[in-house]
Structure formats: structure tokens, C-alpha cells
Records
---
Amino acid sequence: MSARSNILLALSAAVAAGGCGDISNPSRSNFYDWRLVVGIDSLTFHWPEDHTVRVWVQDTLSMPANTQAGIDTWKRQFLYQEFDAVLVPDSATADVLVGVTIPPAAARAIRLGSMAPECTGDTTFPPLVGSTIVLPFHIRVVPRTLDPEGPATQACLRLTVTHELGHAMGLFKHSPNPNDLMAPDPVSGPTARDRNTVQQLYHFEADLTASR
Amino acid sequence: MRTALLLTSLLLPSALAAQSSTTFYAGLGATWSSKLVEDVIVSDVITTQPAIAPTIMVGGATEVFPRYDVDIELQFTTGSYSADTKGNGSTKLGTLRTFSATLGLDGPLFKPPFRWRASVGVLKYLPTEDTGMFLQGGPLEFLMGLGAQYRRPVSSAIDLSVTLRYDFHRFTTDELQRQGFSQTQQVHRVGLTVGIAMGGRR
């Protein structure tokens, strides 16, 4: 076999293998509405991609570990690091406050809640100022059992704080599907629908910004 | 383990070069890669691609027919990779390393200092962090390639070696498949290394 025929043979094999189609992205068509309805407006908010969200957590009932697990769960839904968050020790500089005795953000706060047999949760933030959300988001997760350190309540706290973090990320509506993490009474998740929704949200143009 | 690898890498070339029909070569250089994934979310077109990556390559070849060698080549690259959104900036996703092992056949190309190489082998992606598309780790892919090498004596025992490599593989990851990506992406890589060669055909 000549050198030239060897090269031609190898080149042909490479071209033949390369002839197939490229990778195809998913349609992500299965998602739910996330927008905040204010009057006649449906508004979108998400954190800027270059902003690391600062989360302060009340150190009780394993809430720091539960909240970190919630942050990790949401970060895993993204392919391109669209969302990032860290726990911070100083509540004064935090974008999101999480705890079991966190009061609502304001007397007339916008409230998004969830309820399960073992615990409840809500996320509040003050009425919009123009197109601005005044930080921080307040997330309250409250056990409803006599054994708040028990495994069932802890699982509920973890799931509920993850659900509430979803609200603080901009998923301002509940999913109509009971299996989704963002259902009003979440039982599991996130599902592919939750993932599709949050991925779409973070590539949608935001109407709202957030500032202190 | 590291000591054993270091000793092997130091002693193997000498042992191979001691046989007249065996060539050892090593080089440093850079490798360019085409995109790994192109994705569309809402109206954003997102392309994930490794940056040009520093490359280290070692190989050993032995003569099997007159003028033709069989060789084994190991290549390691390390560099960043990023997601570029068309018209909307770039996000660094971390560090991506690759390790490839290929079995090749090489022979004369045009005139004696030049040789061609055709190869097959495997390529392993080694992200430093299991995140994003590498959430479930890096894939192992089948690889094939073509290349050319130029050798020029610089001393009685050592040649200067300039090596150009092209290779091709198809890419996907477990996480991409879990998220609903179908088929695989054809990935082309071109690498250029400069190094030394010892022993064998000169």
C-alpha cells in the first residue's frame, strides 16, 4: 500500500464518520408560566448572569444545610451557569433571607406560598417600586409537627426551601402540575418541566430588576 | 504511583531509543477544538467550545515494514471552556482537560524529513468540576486522526520534531442526554507540537 493510498483511506473514513448530523438540542416546550402578574402586566424577573446571589440563613433546624441543598439543586438545572448563589454570614448584605422566624418583607408584601403536611413556606417581597424589586427576598419555612428535627419534617423543610428559592429566582407562579417542585404543595422534584421553565426564564428578557 | 509514572516516563524513552528501529518523541504545543454543543434557548444561540489548550504529547514508534512504523501516542490537553451567547457575551464554564491514547501507523510523506500518520484511539474528557453538561462526568469517546511530522537533526542523538495532528470524534455527555439532547456533535481538533525525537529512522 502506498503512502498516498493510506492517507486517502484514513481521510475517507474520517469524512464518512463526520457525515452524520450534529447534536440536537431539546425543544423545552413543556414548561409553565413564571411571570408575576401586576395589574394588567405579566412581568419577568431573573438574576443577572454575572451576579452571585447572596443568601443568609437562620442557623436553626439544619436550615443552612437544607438551603445549601436547595441552591445546589437549582444550580444543577442549568447547563451554562446562568444562576449562582452562596450562603453569606451577614444578613445586612444578603439578597435573600431564609429562616423559620423571618417576618414578611413588608406589611403589603407580595406573597408566594406553599403548604405541605409537615411544613409551610412563603416568599415575600415589598410592592414593586416602578420596575424594581426592593431586596431582600424574605423566605420563611415553618415546621408544623412536634418533631421539627425528625426526618419527615426535615425532608419537608428541604423541599419547601428549594421551592421558595425557586420563587426568589423569578419563578413567580406555581406550576399547575402537582409533580413539579413549583406546584403549590410540592411533593418532589424538580422535574423536567421545572428545568425547562427555569432554563427558559433565564434566557428571557427581564422586565424587572432588583436592588436594595 | 506518581513516582512509578515518572520513572516509567524517564526510562521508557531511553529503553525504546536503545533499539535502533524504535523512535521516541515528545512535544509541547497547543490544540484547537471545534464546538462541543450548540444550543438554542428562547432566542439565545449558545455555543460551548474549549479554548486553545496547552498540550503535551509523548509517543513511541517501532518499524513494522520497511519505511512504515506502528506507534502509540498519548496526548494531554488542559484549558478553559466557555459558553458564548451570540451577541450577548461569554461565560467561562471552568477547566476542561482531555487525555487521548491512540494507536497509529506512519509512513513517508513527500520527502524523508516528513512523515504522515493515521490513527485510532480513545479520548477521555476530564472536567475539573462536574457541573453543567459534565454534571455526570466526562465521556469517553472513540477517536480517529491524521497527522504529519517533520524531523530535523539537532545533535548526534536528538532530532527536532514538529508535529501536526488532526483528529475527529463525536461528542455527547450523559447529562446532555438526560436533558433531552439527541444525536452527537462532531468535534474536530487540530494540534501543533514542537519537541524532540530520539532513535529510529533519521
---
Amino acid sequence: MDDRDTRTADERREGDRRSVGPNTEERQTASVRSAIRTELAVDDRARPRRKRNPDAPVVEVDHVSLAFDVPILEDVSFPAREGETVAIVGESGTGKSTMLKLLLRLLVPDRGRVLIDGEDITNLTFEEALLVRQKMGMVFQGAALFDSMTVFENVAYPLREHTQMDEDEIEERVKEKLEFVDLDAERVMEQFPSELSGGMRKRVGIARGMANNAEIMLYDEPTSGLDPLTTSTITRLIMKLQRELGVTSVVVSHDIRSVFRMASKVALLHDRRITFFGTPEEMTASEDRYIQDFLGGA
Amino acid sequence: MPPFLVRFNDAAKSKVLTIQEYFVLAGKSLRFIFSRPFYGQDVVQQMDEIGVKSLGIVLLTGLFTGMVLALQSSVQLKTFGATMYIGNLVAASMIRELGPVLAGLMVAGRVGSGIAAQLGSMRVTEQIDALNTLGTDPIKKLVTPRVLAALIMVPVLTVINDFVGIIGGNVIAAFVIGLPSSQYWRTVWDQIAADGFTLRYIPNDFVQGLSKPFVFGGIISITACYFGLGTTGGTEGVGQSTTRTVVTSSILILIVDYFITQLLLSVLSYG
């Protein structure tokens, strides 16, 4: 069953009555569609899959440089096409997580552009950035669940914030997402994050990230600090999201084993630059000394 | 430029930046009170957290402050044979100064530290980033409800503090000094009336006593949110933010109290 949110970027903006679309004609169509959608209530499942140029990257980092006190990233570029899982690997402290913050526009690059769905997000205002972020689901390293809320409230949070769904619909969606991540919804819904194990917290984090039917999922070290069995479960889950929902993912990790299992492309961040970008097979085949050391040491 | 001047320049700039950020946060949080979405539930929850749960310490503070005021002033007034004026002294000091300042300091200690610790741990566990990522402005969701709740609840706590303090004075006056309660309450009212009225009906003392806690509520909540949201450096950072919040907001309360008093004494027609 494909229940992805298939609204186009313009429709979403229209839905938020905050159209910043570049093209008036597009906007008009979008507003007609949004009117129809309102008429037909909230069920957005049956609508056809969004037509996108399969070659156009969903996420694109374009010659990005960033420095705080010291340079962090220099002239970094990579694309992630629809349905791909791009893994960013590298040693600790090379700015991998910074990259995710750039994609979410929690940080703005000093030079270069970040494009989400073809839209340059570097010059957006804070409020516009909040809208773009709704397309993305982020899974934090420590899950970052709101510990004052129950599991149910955590997963329901993006729905309450950004949709007009009523309580029944929200409950249904939350259960569906919790079951998607292989959690016993009835059992965990009323628990608080502090009562869950690390692996369960991470799964709730994934459920929350995808609650809004995000088209793009970002994972910050999804498998760090987990036992091998749970690592494998989470890896399988990320693959399931990609396979069943066609989600585009960017994964930051230094867990080479699970990266090789789930990634369609690997970007190696070394010395502030991306020194390799290609498939896992190409990476293993590479003669490069540093890559061999990196893989051997992992 | 010589190196020490460079360092001085940098330090001065960062101080100015801090102050600027503080006021930007204050401005935003106040502006968001009037813009959608409203987080009414969070406001109510914070009013409970800041107001209702601080009631105990405020009652105790008020009662004992009033009692000690009555006791101390009775010693002084006795030398002039003027113990019947205890009510005047207790009422004036409680309503104008001690009520607001002590309630402010107690709330800064109890609530300010709590807010800073909570927001600080949310920052270090990436929950603030998560809010941002989920398309919520953390200032709107976290800061505004706390500021609004404090602006409402600190004055309420102050009124309670004042009242309990005056009752404390009454207890000492009646049982230790032997002044009849009717006499005590008459002098309390005499004092309030003697200080004049604003707009004919509002006692000047009340204007002073209620404008101060309103400002203090803002200072406590914004300071706590500022340091809480700015937490860096893991759990140790959370501790530092908490300490800074209590120290900074307490000092600000005392300094600002002086200036409000100065201002109001010149604006309101006393006497």
C-alpha cells in the first residue's frame, strides 16, 4: 500500500496559504487542487504518485562551504535522487552531522547552495524554512523524543502541528506508523520515552519522522550505540522505508557494515571535502589508499 | 592594533551581541503572544508550573517576612512609643518592596532554574533541533508560553505574598506586641491611603507593587529561556545555564527594582 504524501511542493505551500511558488500558473492549478482536496476531506492516499523527473535530484548540495571558527566543509557537492539512499561516511568530527543541519537549514552555508526538490533553501526566511522542513523527516542520533510527551503524542506532534486531521485520523495514522516500525502500538503508545530501550526510542523517532509522510528522510547515526541485533533491525527498517515508500534518504553514519547494506550511493567526507562519491561496489573496488584504510579500519 | 586591544574589542563585541540576542529573544517571545498558532495548553501548563507550584514557598516567604518586619519594627518603634504604627510599616514595605522583590527572587530560584534546566537538557538532547525540524518555532512553542505564564503568575504570587505578609505582621502585632487587630488593619489601610491614588481609585502602592512583579516575571522567564536555549557542552552546560539564570535574574531583579522605584516615585504623586 502506497500512502505517501504525494502533494507537490506548490500544493503544500498552497495548503499552508503561504504560496511562494515561482510560477503563477502553477500556483493557480495548485489552489484549484487544494480546493478539491478540501472538498474531499483529508484522504490523500489515493492520489497518484508525484511525477518528478527521475534524473532531477530531490536533495542537492551544490559547492557548499562552511566555516565556524575553523573551516568545516569546503566545496562539497552531492546529489540524492528520488528513492535513493545516500550515505555520508567519514571519521568522527568531519562535519557529517553538520551536513544534515545544512539540509534542514538549521545552518546556512557560507558559500554554495542547498536544493530541496529543486528549490534553493539557502535564502529562505525562518518561517519559509519551517515549511520546507515539513517535507523532511529527521531521525536524531539520540532519537530526540520530547520527554515530556508520551510516545503517542510524540508521533502525533507533526500531525497536530501541520494538518487538520481529527483525533481519530491522528490515532489511526500514529498506530499505522508505529506498526510500520514494528512496535506494538497498543503497548507503547501511552509510555514515556524514558521507559523505552534505545532501539525502541530510535524506532519511535523514525515513526515520528515519517508521520507526516515525509518524502525525504534524514538519519543522524541511526545505528550508533545499538547492539548488533538492533543495528540490523534499524538498518532493515531504513531499507523498508526506501523500498516500500520510495523515500529519498540521507544517512550519516560511520557504521560501514550497515551503510553498505542500505546505501545506493556513498559519499566519503575526508579533510572537509567529499573525496569519493559512488556506489558501495565502486567504493570497495577503489584503489585509493585512504578509502582502503577507512574500509579496513571500519 | 595591539593584541590586548583586539581581545578587549572581541570581548566587548560578544557582550553587546549577548545583550542584543537577549532583547531579540524578548521581543520575539512577546510578539508571538499575539500570533498564531497559539499554544494555550502549554500556557496553562506553565501557569501551573510557575504559579500554583510556587505557592508554597511564596506563602512561607511572605508569612515570615511579615512577621520579622513586625518584630523588628516594634523594637524601633517602641523607643518612640509608636508601636501602634506597626501596620503602616509592614504594609508599606511589603506592598511596595519586599512582596514583589522576594516573590521575584523565590520564583527566580525555583522556576527560573527549572526552566533553564529543562530547556538546556532539551537543547543538549537535540529536542530543540527536533522541534525546528518538525516545523515548529521553538521560541513560539517553548519561550512564549513560559513568558506569558510568568507575566501573569508572578504578579498573582506577589499579591498573595503581600497579603500573607501583612497577616504575618498582624499575628506578631496581636500576640507578641499586644496591638489589637482592628488597630493594626486600620493603620495598614491608613498607610495605603496616605500614599495617594492613581486615577483617583487605584492606590499608588498597588501601582508600584504590581508593575514590579510584572517586569520581574518577564526578566525571570526570558533570562531562563535565554540561558536554557543557549546551553552548550552537555550536562555540565545544563548546570552552568541553571546557575547563570538564577544569578543573572536575581541581580537583574534587584537592579531593575531600584530603577522602577525611582521612576514610579517621580511619576506617581506621593504624599
